[in-house]
Every structure is written in C-alpha cells, then in structure tokens.
User: Fold this.
Amino acid sequence: MTSSTIEKGISIDLIDTPCLLVDMALVEKNLKTLFSKLSGTNVKVRPHLKTVKSPEFAKLLLAAGATGVCVAKLSEAEVMAAAGIEDILITTEIMGAPKLERLEKLIAKHAQVKVVIDSAVGACAMQNAAKNAGVKLSVFLELNVGQNRAGVEPGEPALRIANEISKQSNLQLIGIQGYEGHLQLLPDETERKRLCAESMEKLMSTVALLRQNGHKIDVITTGGTGTSEYCVEAGANEVQPGSFIFMDVAYRRAIGQRYENALTVVSTVISKPSESRCVIDAGFKSLSTDSGNAELRSHTNMTYRPAGDEHGIIESSNSKLQLEIGDRVELIPSHIDTTVNLHDYYYCHRGGRIENVWRLSARGKVQ
Ligand SMILES: Cc1ncc(COP(=O)(O)O)c(C=O)c1O
Assistant:
C-alpha cells in the first residue's frame, strides 16, 4: 500500500518500503522522560523542530508541555505558522533579499515569530524587515559559547551588538541564545557536563554584563538532547532539545539509552546473492551517512552498509544470514535529522497497527 491508500489500523507489514516507521508509544515515553526530568525547575521547553519537520509532531510536543518551538530555517517557520503554530524561534540568522522579503510577510501575520541576531548588519536587516512589516520584532542575541559556528563572542563584543539591537526602534531584545552544539555527542558524561558548565559560564557572564548595561534579558535559551539538564542547572531558563523525540545511533552511543529509539527505517530484502550477504532497498537516499552507518534494530549479529543510492547490504558475522528475499528489516538511523529529511511521510504505529500517516511538510525546507 502507498501513503495515499493507507488505512488506519492496518498492519505495519503492509506498508511499502523503504519508509520511516514511528513507534508512538516510544515517542510518548521519550516526551515523558524529558518533561518529567525538567518538571519542577520552572524551565521552559522549546523543542527544536529541525528533527521532526512536521507540524503534527510539533503539536504533540506542545500538547506535552512545550511552550514554543524552534526551527532552523525561515521556510520551516513558514510551514509551522501555516499549520497554526505561533510561538516560533528561528535559530539561524536570516540574510539576503529573498528571505528578508519572506520574513516581512511572515512577521506581519505572525506576531510571535522570533529571530536571532549576531551582527550589526543583522540588526539593520531585521530592523528593516520589522519596519516594513509594521511590527515590533522580538529578537535573541546569539552568542558563541564554544561551538565556533555563528554567534557573537561573549563579553564586550556581545554588548556591542546588544547595543546595536537596542538602537533599532522596531526590535525588542528579549533574550540570548547560546547553543553548545559541539558538546551534544561527547560520550564521556563527566566531560560533557564539565565543558557544558564552561559554555554556560560564558553565557551567564554575558547575560550579567548585558543586564548591568540596562538590557532586559528575560530568556536564556540553549541546550540540546545531550546537555539540556546541565544547562538548566547552570542558569538557562529555556531549553531546545530536538533529537530526543526519536533518537539515533550517534546519540545512543553518546548518552546511552536515556531515550528510546522510536524511529526506524523499514526496508525489504530484494536479493540474496550469497549465504552471508543480502541486499535491501535502502541506500544513501533512505538513510543518511554523515554520522556513519545505520544499525539493525534486531539481528544484532548483522551489519548494514549502503551500496549505492537505492541499495544497501546486510552481512552477517556468522556465515549463514538469517534473512531471506522478501523479509523486512528495521534500521536505526545513525543521524536522525538528516535521515528524516530524505522521506515524505511518517508511518506512525502503535503495537504494529498504523495510527496515522503524517506528511513531512517541512522536508527539504532548507531556505
Ligand atoms: C540551535 C540549536 N538548538 C537546539 C538543537 C537541538 O539539538 P539536538 O537535536 O541535539 O537535541 C540544535 C540542533 O542542531 C540547534 O542547532
């Protein structure tokens, strides 16, 4: 059956492959784990939708207790806003005439869209967009806390940009974002915690400096799946985890089984050229490899590797492979975000029966 003809309640064995299969009971368990960990801390959870890229999952996160969402790109924000999600922080700087025009349209209609700024040029661009839209735009100063990606340097450089933002009549500086992306996958928990404390020190000392200079920094937002709890301990009042909802091999290796692997790619054995090797219908176009190869959910004595765009090879360490042509296998993606972005639909199931087929509306939205 294809996505358009799928009926609710059918067995997952009837859906076509390769496909994204989501175990909703495990998703709910992951939501509960995250929200119960942070309950009683007064911290707000603003999950990052760059993982799920779907308004349906965004709504599930909001229903579970999220107070708003993050997206990486303007085009993702457009999809979420069109689906009725209002409180959206775009966590990547927006630049270039085509985007600024679209930003104007978005903020003219959606007052709760927020952006990040890390330069005077950015402050001017956001001011023009907000002025043209006739709105006051809420903005976050983005700080480099050690990832060395975007973000102004802590201390005086950050103060200079905060001052630039405050000069702009259509901008309101409401918070600071400092994302320690370089620490998320550090496998040594003690080291991850220690380095996170260092990053948070940069963030919190800059917040103190900005406040001393009259800036009202209400929101201190940061943290991913591997660091959110440590960020909260060190003073963040909002966290942005994304991957925890589905997990992947890279995160499981780094942080253990704190969250469940709720998403797999299902694939079919299409050829078995030898007793120890078979070929499945999932290659580079179904499973991303930027973080290594996917792993089989069961059959742990077998390994998967891509063998081209549309093919994958499964081999066994034992000589005889316990798979036959026509069998189906479930693979845990090595990196969830880049794998999800390769697919059109989520096949959500409960106990092996399809509950929903959700379109990945923000799939491919990188602009
Ligand atoms: C700014 C920002 N916040 C939060 C996240 C979420 O991180 P994770 O998916 O590791 O939980 C990301 C991921 O890249 C990010 O770039």
